[in-house]
């Protein structure tokens, strides 16, 4: 029936003889044998929108393989019955809170047995892949003899993002099947391959459309679908020890450019595994199991798994699908231009208004570049481009569901604009402000309907920064808050609800860190030594370079603002820094700030420094962040500790493998953090005084112990 339907309507999914409506609901694998004696297995895990690999699913597959032994089919098809895709990977819930490598190893051995069994059956097998085929899903597909990718299938090994490498045969099946350097690159970067590139690599045998699936399966059954042979010269060179050693060293130095071994051991473990055992399937299997089990119980993997769930939690904060179809942005400067472009890229109509035509025009070229780069498809980029509408006369206002104001940071200007917006917008529309520092209570003062006003605070650059703070105030309605949260998720950003308070979360937590770096510079500590210490802790970039990126003028203005409005001591910037701002040496944007920048925008660094950093350097930089986070939690700037950690990771890049600032504080020991702050306060002054927020965290930790 599936075949008949697909002949009529190529959009429907080919399910061979399986009638999904009639299939037993309690089974994950829906089965049927067609007239040509081909067995179809369709995975449809109950109660889930996507398929995953877990123990129960593999046990059921194992039982089916046993049954098939008695009555072998001419061929076996494995595909997913979910529209969403093939299999997204292992059920990551299984990986949480594991501490015993031996237990992981035992579970892996059971899983390997089933997948190895699939790889060894006597009849041809084919995985028909649509949508996401990732991690464990790709490993099951690789255990099949053939792979057919359908439509926009995506194949990849994302394990490295969780501090792992493939653990269900992926390390040896991929390196055996295709050019091993390509396979290793996939596993080391976690990047996905489209159906077409997978075909080019030989990872799939055919990339086709849904309407050809039945014919492809028939070809497999007849033994007529052949894989591209992959025994090139390069593969031969790499099958020898010295060739692999050479390639491994190159991979290692590439990884070293991005990730430190002590922070992220997985890619290094993977390279070691392939270097020592590549080409020897049994040794690779054994090494893969052991290495995966060891990695899974490391703090790094457990923290990165936590980060995965933090992301899910933040996505889940939006209560519903967004019904915002049209965004009108007022102010086409640094932020407004990108906000409009990013909204258009995400499928919304976006009108972009400004007082002047010039900023609108200036925003368009980078918008196109961003769309081309991030959508990687000229048709999609053109569609997105069509949705972005320059609107110097502000005609878009009356039709917009959401109006985002991104004009300069001046209270009176913003308030004046809101009066006009309220006049012209349609009933029920929302006004959002991108303000970084003006209290929303002040901004909303003259609004007719303040319940429809909210802060949507983006970070620069919008296309790279995943976090968006959704700022609440005393008159905000729940409905507007949820609409804002849903809008943020619908543009593929992560929302963190925050209270309207000075600096919200991210700017408030970053400021003492940046200023401490400035004080260290003032004391004569070299900028590169400071940046290195922060990177050594796990920050993606040091505070000196970050200050240059933010702009010295902006950084100092934020610090002044916070100093005026917060009851905690925030140090004054050294005079030479203020002079720099006066001179226009503002950072990367002017080619010179604390570093000088070459024409490609790269900071010019001196020779590697041998200077011994002060012993408390890392704590001086990092603990002020932690202290501010404890204060923000105590003051309910962010209500949920997980969301706070997530916001700091996705908004500032706070060392992801440490699981967030408060997670790090708990792992290090709240007592220890407070003692270290006390010591710093004694030596350097009150700015390090532990916040009262630690008391509760300390009690919780003691109670749990
Ligand atoms: P910007 O100066 O680059 O752009 C502001 C734009 O608003 C200019 O193009 C200007 O012509 C336009 N404008 C001025 N008056 C206007 C009016 N009456 N009607 C329409 N347009 C008008 O500013 P920006 O850096 O994009 O900042 C905008 C807002 O976003 C500010 O509230 C700022 O605090 C906030 N913000 C900035 C950053 C950042 O990194 N730049 C980050 C987060 C939030």
TrEMBL record:
Q: Name one Pfam family in it.
A: ECH_1
The UniProt catalytic activity note for this protein reads: a (3S)-3-hydroxyacyl-CoA + NAD(+) = a 3-oxoacyl-CoA + NADH + H(+)
Keywords annotated in UniProt: Fatty acid metabolism, Lipid degradation, Lipid metabolism, Lyase, Multifunctional enzyme, NAD, Oxidoreductase
For the biological process aspect of GO, one term held by this record is:
fatty acid beta-oxidation
- Record domain 3-hydroxyacyl-CoA dehydrogenase C-terminal: where: 503-597
The pathway to which it is assigned is: Lipid metabolism; fatty acid beta-oxidation
Keyword field contains Cytoplasm: no
EC numbers: 4.2.1.17
The enzyme's main class, written as a single word, is lyase
| MF annotations from Gene Ontology | enoyl-CoA hydratase activity; long-chain (3S)-3-hydroxyacyl-CoA dehydrogenase (NAD+) activity; NAD+ binding
Q: Where is the 3-hydroxyacyl-CoA dehydrogenase NAD binding domain?
A: 326-499
Xref: InterPro entries: 3-OHacyl-CoA_DH_CS, 3-OHacyl-CoA_DH_NAD-bd, 3HC_DH_C, 6-PGluconate_DH-like_C_sf, ClpP/crotonase-like_dom_sf, Enoyl-CoA_hydra/iso, FA_oxidation_alpha_subunit, NAD(P)-bd_dom_sf
UniProt lists the family membership as follows:
In the N-terminal section; belongs to the enoyl-CoA hydratase/isomerase family. In the central section; belongs to the 3-hydroxyacyl-CoA dehydrogenase family.
Its protein name is enoyl-CoA hydratase
Organism of provenance: Afifella marina DSM 2698
């Amino acid at each position: 029936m599936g075949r008949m339907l697909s002949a009529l309507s190529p959009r429907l999914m080919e399910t061979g003889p399986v009638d999904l409506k009639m299939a037993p609901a309690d089974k994950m694998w829906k089965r049927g044998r067609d007239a040509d004696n081909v067995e179809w297995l369709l995975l449809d895990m109950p109660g889930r929108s996507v398929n995953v690999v877990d123990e129960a699913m593999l046990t059921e597959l194992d039982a089916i393989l046993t049954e098939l032994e008695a009555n072998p089919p001419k061929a076996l098809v494995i595909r997913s019955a979910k529209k969403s895709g093939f299999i997204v990977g292992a059920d990551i819930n299984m990986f949480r809170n594991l501490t015993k490598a031996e237990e992981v190893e035992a579970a892996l051995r059971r899983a390997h047995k089933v997948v190895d069994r699939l790889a060894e059956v006597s009849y041809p097998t084919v995985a028909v892949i649509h949508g996401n085929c990732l991690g464990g899903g790709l490993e099951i597909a690789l255990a099949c003899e053939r792979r057919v990718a359908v439509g926009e299938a995506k194949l990849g090994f994302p394990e490295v993002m969780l501090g792992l490498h493939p653990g269900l045969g992926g390390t040896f099946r991929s390196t055996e099947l295709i050019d091993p350097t390509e396979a290793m690159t996939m596993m080391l970067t976690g990047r996905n391959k489209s159906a077409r590139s997978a075909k080019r690599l030989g990872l799939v045998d055919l990339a086709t459309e849904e309407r050809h699936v039945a014919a492809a399966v028939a070809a497999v059954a007849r033994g007529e679908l052949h894989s591209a042979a992959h025994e090139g010269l390069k593969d031969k060179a790499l099958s020898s020890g010295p060739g692999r050693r050479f390639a491994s060293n190159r991979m290692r130095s590439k990884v070293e450019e991005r990730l430190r071994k002590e922070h992220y051991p997985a890619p290094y473990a993977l390279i070691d595994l392939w270097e020592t055992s590549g080409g020897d399937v049994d040794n690779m299997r054994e090494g893969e199991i052991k290495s995966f089990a060891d990695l899974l119980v490391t703090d790094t993997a457990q923290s990165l798994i936590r980060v995965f769930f933090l992301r899910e939690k933040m996505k889940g904060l939006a209560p519903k699908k967004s019904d915002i179809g049209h965004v009108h942005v007022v102010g086409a400067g640094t932020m407004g231009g990108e906000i409009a472009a990013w909204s258009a890229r995400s499928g919304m109509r976006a009108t972009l208004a400004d007082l002047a035509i010039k900023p609108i025009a200036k925003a368009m070229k980078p918008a196109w570049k961003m769309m081309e780069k991030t959508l990687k498809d000229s048709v999609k980029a053109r569609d997105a481009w069509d949705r972005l509408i320059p609107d110097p006369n502000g005609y878009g206002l009356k039709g917009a569901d959401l109006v985002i104001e991104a004009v300069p940071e001046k209270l009176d200007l913003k308030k004046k604009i809101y009066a006009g917006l309220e006049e012209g917008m349609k009933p029920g529309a929302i006004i959002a402000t991108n303000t970084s520092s003006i209290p929303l209570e002040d901004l909303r003062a003259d609004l007719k309907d303040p319940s429809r006003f909210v802060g949507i605070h983006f970070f620069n650059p919008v296309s790279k920064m995943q976090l968006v703070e959704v700022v609440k105030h005393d008159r905000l309605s729940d409905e507007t808050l949820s609409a804002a949260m849903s809008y943020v998720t619908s543009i593929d950003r992560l929302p963190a609800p925050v209270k309207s308070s000075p600096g919200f979360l991210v700017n408030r937590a970053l400021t003492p860190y940046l200023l401490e770096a400035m004080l260290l510079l003032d004391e004569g500590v070299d900028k590169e030594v400071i940046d290195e210490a922060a990177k050594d802790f796990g920050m993606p970039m040091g505070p000196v370079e970050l200050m240059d990126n933010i702009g010295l003028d902006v950084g100092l203005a934020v610090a002044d603002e916070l100093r005026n409005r917060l009851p905690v001591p925030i140090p004054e910037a050294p005079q030479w820094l203020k002079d720099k701002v006066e001179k226009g040496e503002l950072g990367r944007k002017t080619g010179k700030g604390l570093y000088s920048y070459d024409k490609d925008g790269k900071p010019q660094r001196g020779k590697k420094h041998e200077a011994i950093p002060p012993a408390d350097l890392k704590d001086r930089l990092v603990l002020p962040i932690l202290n501010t986070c404890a204060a923000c939690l105590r003051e309910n700037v962010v209500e949920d500790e997980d969301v706070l950690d997530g916001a700091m990771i996705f908004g500032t890049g706070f060392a992801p493998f440490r699981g967030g600032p408060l997670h790090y504080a708990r792992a290090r020991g709240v007592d220890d953090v407070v003692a270290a702050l006390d010591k710093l306060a004694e030596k350097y002054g009150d700015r390090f005084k532990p916040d009262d927020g630690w008391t509760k965290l300390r009690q919780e930790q003691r109670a749990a112990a």
